What we know:
The chain is mainly alpha-helical. It is 64% helix and 0% strand. The chain has one domain: Leucine-rich Repeat Variant (Alpha Horseshoe).
Amino acid sequence: MSDNEKKIVELIRDLSNPIAYARKASAVVLGGIGPDAKGAVPELTKVLSDSNADVRIEAANALGEIGYEAKSAIPELIKATNDSDARVRQAATVALGKIDLLDK
Length: 104
């Protein structure tokens, strides 16, 4: 396992951290990694239902940055477009636009 893969595994684990800031920071970094963080898609998808809106926003942003590899998150991102927080709705909408199903 490469150092990058190890870091991604650690970041995925941190998405379950009881501290919201740690979950948010992990999602931000995973989004910065982009498509190479595709292994984080299942956990980022779960985090779309986090109790903290900032965490949900960053999870949606990260999924958008991962792009096509995050296509399995589309149903949950669609649900997130109905979130109670307008910022989450916007982030989910943008993420859906970034997951271009035609660009493989």
